[in-house]
Each structure stands twice: as C-alpha cells, then as structure tokens.
Amino acid sequence: MDWLFDNIQILFLIGIALASWLKSRSDQKKAGQEEDDSPLPDWIPEEILKPRRPPPLTKSGVPPGLPGAPKPPPIFEPAVVPPIPIDEQALARQREIQEKLAAAKAAKQAAAKLVKDNKAAKEKASSAPPSSLRDPAQTRRAIVLREILGTPVGLR
Length: 156
Fold this sequence. Notes:
The protein is mainly α.
C-alpha cells in the first residue's frame, strides 16, 4: 500500500495514457461508422455478393447433373499396361532371404527361451538356503561376520 502512495505520479500518468488511448479508439470507431453506411461489412468478398447465373442447359433442356441429363465424355482412357516380365533369379533370391529370415527368427526365439530358462534357474538357486549354514561351525562364522561387517549395534 505504501508503494501506491509513494508512486502516485506514475499511476496518474498511466491512467491518463489509458484514458486517451480508449478515447482515440472510440473516435476511430465513430469515424468508421459515419464513413461507411453500407448495410454489408467490407470484409465480405465481392464474389459472394455477385448474383450467380444459372447453369447452362443441355441440348435436351435439362441442367447438367440432374436425372435425364447426358453423361459427360470420360476425361481419359485407361492405358493398357504390358505385363511385367518375371525375373526368376530375383524370385529365388527373395525365397532364400525369406528362409534366412525365418531361421534367424527361430534362433532369436530359442536364444530368448534359453535366457529365460537361465534366469529362472538362477532365481531358483538363489532362493535355496546355502548348505554351508547347516554346519554349526559355519553358522557361528556367519553370525560373527554379520556382527563385524553389518550395521553397528548403536545404529540398529
């Protein structure tokens, strides 16, 4: 609130500029309305304002496009395309490539299956308890190592 009272001169100048801008806009609008008294706006293209002529009649007296009007002649005749000669060597190469592709897809699927089986075997092996903990000496050693290498008792 203090800023408003400290800068009252700037706010006063901004208000005067805004009021003069609004007045000039309203004056321009009034001047534009007085000059153009036409009922239609000037942004409509002249092609739309011109009246359209009716389409010419055909020999039978019916406008084109209505039932009974003669059909126009075709624009072009379809060209006769000669048959393309078959290249037996190219077909043989394509068959060979297709066979290689099928073999590559089969190999990829087999490799993916092996990877999946390997992951499943690793997960199964890691979930089984280690056999060394069945020995009491190994169990004591594991507990001591956990105490030494684990988190300190004061931080648990």
